[in-house]
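1st attempt posting a full record on here, be nice pls
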Amino acid sequence: MTLDVPAGVLVAFLLAGIRAAGWLVLAPPFSSPAIPPVLRALFAAALALPVTPRLANAGLGRLNLPGLLSEAVLQVTIGVVLGFFTALFFAVLRSAGELIDVLGGFSLSVGMDPMSASETSVFGRFHQMLGLMLLFAVNGHLLLVRGFLASFDALPLGSGFSLATIGRLATGGLSQLFLAAVQVATPVAGVLFIANLSLGLLTRAAPSLNAFSLAFPLQILVTLAVVAVTFPAMPTLVRNLTDLSLRAGSVLLHG
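the predicted structure (as tokens):
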């Protein structure tokens, strides 16, 4: 039995799979080390299948070897750039958690995370895992996949993108990351400031009480209470981060 596949279809499938593989390397939640590389490769092939028929007529089957290699490098670059901007906005959750750890005194319990093979703090890892769980709960992963598949319409095989747009988006994305992380950690910072100010006034009024001996356990208690109170806002935050990542991808693809 012989399977005859046109060269244009095979090249389109391979190039689309390469772009999908580059995207899956960085884009959450698919970039998690818990997903085996073989499963990620199969998922990249699954993403390439539905877009192959409309990409097969781009005339890529007539490219020579140097042309195919340069096109493959371009598709990997596009996938990695799209995955980077997707991961950039979702790094807000981990950054906010690490900032809360510093403010609440949990930064002393930094340990090795076996999933990412890096050191991580308590709330940094907790917010990251909670964000990924909520991403599935609000069907954000489906929106990310749909947005990636739309990149083949906005930026088909054989076309490039603007480096100036990448630089502008990277600068704006980093500033939004810092701003969003500070906004998430602001309630904890405000309540801790009031608690420490109250302890200072109490120590000033009654020095014999030695109220600052309660500062560390009070700091931990207040941090846990405020984080618990802010949990209902997490789904909205994850949804907004998904919208931001899709908007950044749209700006990148459309210039």
